[in-house]
Fold:
Amino acid sequence: MFGKWFQDSESYYLYLMELEWGKGFSFSQCVHDKYYKGKTYYYRKCRKCGNSGSITANSVFHGMKMQILKAFHMIFRLTAKKKDMSTTGLKSEVDVQQKTAWLFKQKVPVAMKQSIKIS
Ligand SMILES: [Zn+2]
Structure:
């Protein structure tokens, strides 16, 4: 499911939306499918319970400060390579800090087991 390579962040947001909301929008708290649009196209608010959030909430991307583009490229590298991808390799290839690369390397295998969710 992470085998896609896009060149811009917007494509990844759309990709995530398709994965998460493609079969119908709902937040985990309720199953209502009517929503208000939020401040961005990947942010929605439930008309019934009022819960709101972006497509990245409760996912491996939650609270992330780096571009989603870089995050996806790291995931792609971590999951596509058969042999272990080193954090230094990630760092230089995706152009992130080593700590970020290391954190992602810890998170991704866990997240992969539960789709993109880690909550
Ligand atoms: Zn709701």
Summary: The chain has a mean pLDDT of 80.
